[in-house]
């Protein structure tokens, strides 16, 4: 069933608000903050419809709503074709280059830089002719910055996955479907340890057979616009820097 424009507006507003607050979103918040153009009662009705359609979930302890995996997928799809501002991209490129020396391992530095810039956890690989050269992680401790991982068992499972070199290489190589950026949300992930997460992966490659990827792992309540734009920008920089070093 096609969503009406009002339902789209309300759904995207709920996702935006939940990403920022990690709290269930009320109809009053949508009316007061997002200029819904209708009454709170109308918004509640639309939210009920969206819940029945599978786009929203309702926590038992709250009258508000939160996005489901399907709701996040709609939100992410509505972002594309995504075009980050050139000004923001230029600032990011300058920031990355300012921290890079000629002797630095580009992929390792990129992993560390993106983890600090986005406040999420980064995994990365670098390989030549499908033989792994290096595996990288950055910002693993960032997991604990997000309320979703206050559950220590949940955090332990994710950290255990990230701590496995084989797991990192497998997830980045197997999810290389040719797209510049690939986003998997919650249950879309084929790996049990990532079922409560989102992962955004960007791959790089050159003409000599060197290839790899960078992935950002975080809660489904992720700032997808920041993550996608930073990955696209830094991956393009990696390809350029690798090419310059090898030539």
* CATH arch. level architecture of the largest domain: 2-Layer Sandwich
Radius of gyration of CA atoms, rounded to a whole number: 19 Å
Main sheet properties: 5 strands, antiparallel
Beta content comes to 15-25%
- The averaged pLDDT comes out at 89
**Topology as H/E string?**
HHHEEHHHEEHHEEEH
User: Poorly predicted ranges (pLDDT <50, ≥5 residues)?
Assistant: none
Specify the oligomeric state: single chain
Backbone shape: elongated
- Summed up, the domain count is 2
- Fourth CATH level, the homologous superfamily of the largest domain: GAF domain
CA(first)-CA(last) distance: 53 Å
Return the CATH class of the largest domain.
Alpha Beta
Structural class: alpha+beta
Structural write-up:
The chain has 9 helices and 7 strands, in the order H-H-H-E-E-H-H-H-E-E-H-H-E-E-E-H. It has about 250 residues and is an alpha+beta fold. It folds into 2 domains: about 5-80, Winged helix-like DNA-binding domain superfamily/Winged helix DNA-binding domain (Arc Repressor Mutant, subunit A, Orthogonal Bundle); about 85-245, 2-Layer Sandwich (Beta-Lactamase), CATH 3.30.450.40. A 5-stranded antiparallel β-sheet has the order 4-3-7-6-5, sandwiched between helices. Strands 1-2 form a two-stranded antiparallel sheet. Helix 1 crosses helix 3, helix 5 (about 85-100) packs across helix 9 and helix 6 runs antiparallel to helix 9 (about 225-245). The longest helix has 23 residues, at about 225-245. It is elongated, with a radius of gyration of 19 Å. The N and C termini lie far apart (about 55 Å). The relative contact order is 0.12.
């Amino acid at each position: 069933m096609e969503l009406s424009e009002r339902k789209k507006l309300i759904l995207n507003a709920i996702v935006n608000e939940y990403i920022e607050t990690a709290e269930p979103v009320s109809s009053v918040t949508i009316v007061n903050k997002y200029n819904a153009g209708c009454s709170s009662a109308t918004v509640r009705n639309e939210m009920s419809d969206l819940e029945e359609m599978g786009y929203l979930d309702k926590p038992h302890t709250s009258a508000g709503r939160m996005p489901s995996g399907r709701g996040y997928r709609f939100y992410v799809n509505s972002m594309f074709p995504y075009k980050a501002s050139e000004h923001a991209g230029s600032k990011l490129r300058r920031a990355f280059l300012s921290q890079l020396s000629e002797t630095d391992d580009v992929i390792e530095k990129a992993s560390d830089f993106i983890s600090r810039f986005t406040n999420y956890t980064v995994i990365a690989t670098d390989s030549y002719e499908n033989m792994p050269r290096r595996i990288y992680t950055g910002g693993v401790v960032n997991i604990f910055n997000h309320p979703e991982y206050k559950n220590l068992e949940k955090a332990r499972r994710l950290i255990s996955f990230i701590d496995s070199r084989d797991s990192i290489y497998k997830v980045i190589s197997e999810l290389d479907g040719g797209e510049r950026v690939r986003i998997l949300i919650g249950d879309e992930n084929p790996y049990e340890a990532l079922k409560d997460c989102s992962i955004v992966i960007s791959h790089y490659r050159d003409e000599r057979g060197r290839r790899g990827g960078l992935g950002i792992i975080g809660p489904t309540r992720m700032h997808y616009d920041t993550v996608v734009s930073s990955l696209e920008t830094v991956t393009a920089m990696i390809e350029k820097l690798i090419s310059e070093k090898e030539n």
